Batch of 3 targets.
Target 1
Amino acid sequence: MDELTLLRNTRDDTREPSSQALAAGRAALLGRISDDGSTPTAMHQRKNRRWIPRVTWAAAGVAAALTGALVVGNVTLSTQSAYASDVLRTAAAETIQYADLVAGSDQYLRSRTHARWGVVDETGVEPNEQILDVYMPADPEAEWVLYRDWGKMSSPLTGESIETTRAVDGRFYGPESSWVYVDYADIPLDGAAAYEWIDGQYTGGSASRDEDNFVRITDILRSGLVPAPQRAALLDALSRIPGVTATDNVANLDGVSGVAIGRNEMLRSGERQEIIIDPDTGLVIGERTMSGATIFGWGPNQEMSLTAIETTVVDKAP
């Protein structure tokens, strides 16, 4: 007889355990359960304790992800702003070395703006291209000349689509409408001082103080006529405005590429205004406006306007 058969034959299946044995076994089992804290209530609580940390860790993970996104966004913006500051200050240093074009006694410094601006009416937005030629004479007492092709529009002064206007100091549309906005001699030649000079003139305009400072600086620069020392100071001043960033290899309306310097204005749904500069000369070679949200038929991050600006010396004006 093998060992397995012998073992099976020793078991007596006809005998049942006594009530004393069952009671003793049950008591031992309950005692062990009590020692482990594994009563039904304890087991339920243990299950709950295992579930609650999972929920807590899940919520903590979501919070960490949101915090991480905000941190990454802030770090990215800070990095972009640092890059823009470096680009602008490098351009300012290069501008100082650049020999500006100078008109002779009978010549003009001409700034040509080729613009594509949107015309908004009740039917939507339609692009309209214009040409604006501003002739600044070498003689500061002589008249400036503006030649303007209004494209599909007409001049509010003449009602014609082609307009030629003459005025001292480029005040083509009245005493307060100078093409260059300021006397260049008033612009401090130090970047920090130029920023303080601009910021000190803030009177509450625009969507924010930073936007207003940015627009007033770029309005001066986009004339295409600012001398190199003042241009360098204004580029440095731009680097000090919060939120300013730079985008490489942006083409103007005529296809000439430069670095776009701009900022998004949150109070205008993220709309972005840019000037495009030649980093070697500090000259503004164009402007661009990008939408921040769906508005007037433009979708998010679509080009709303684009220009090209070129400065040359010419022998005569219209």
Note: Helices lie at 3-10, 19-36, 40-97, 191-199, 209-221, 228-238.
Target 2
Amino acid sequence: MTATATAPARRTRGFNIEKWAWLFMRLSGVVLIVLIFGHLFVNLMVGEGIHGVDFGFVAGKYATPFWQWWDVLMLWLALIHGGNGMRTIVNDYVTHEGARKALVWAIGLAAALLIVLGTLVVFTFDPCNGVLESGVMWETCQAVGN
């Protein structure tokens, strides 16, 4: 009785999206931990803590490019990380090819739309937009020249 030897599986060369998605999940997870805990520390522990978080606090943070980029990076990484995780779950559990493709496209479109809208909100945020003369922010907005 002779044993038949099986040839080792051949490795294909080229771009492997699943490998890069796996690597992205690990790296973005580490970066997100730093971004999220930094965000929570500044918002909840520094200054007046949770009692100091109001419209003026957010307006003050978004007046500086550092916090704009911090929040945009956190937003982008969280949405891409979450979308990629949902894509993986859909690929693992949805057996119908058409449904799988539709769901993966829907996840991608939803993530892209939220990224665009969130980025626009952060970079175009103007606390004086629409402030009326009878509003509480009127004097502040007049003082800064808006």
Note: The chain has five helices and no strands.
Target 3
Amino acid sequence: MKSFAQLMHSRRSCRKFTQEKIDPEALSLVLNAALLSPSAKSRRSWHFVVVEDKNTLEKLADCKESGAALLKNAAVAVVVTANVAENDCWIEDCSIAALAMQLQAEDLGLGSCWVQVRNRGLNSGERAVDIVRGILNIPEGFDTLCILALGHKASELPLKNDDDAPWEQVHVGTF
């Protein structure tokens, strides 16, 4: 296990994956990280749809104009959705759960990339959330925040550099 500082330096958005499948135990650890993540008032209104079927991954890759094509080559996609009536903090809770999965994936040596779904869509005006709902039979009343692409990295990306940290955006005491 890496230290948290090492994990933050090494986690990068991975958009190119090998064809190697993810070990079921590793996938279970990634999902467990989400299930153990904090949620507002412990409501845990999030739900996760795990997609490994290549045909379904290809359909999901077309849910918006750009930024989703990488799903076609992912070993697994995890669709992060929530029952919005259960919790007004569903966006925050889903974001925390998604990040927990990405950090766990990185710790296991897997690559991941966040594919934004909420407030995205096609040039025709069709909403990405509705496209994903139709593909995966997600019930009405649920909204999808993102899809996480997961897989074995096709290449290693350089570590993040502390010099790139925008410390000018940190304000002490007042803005």
Note: The mean pLDDT is 96.
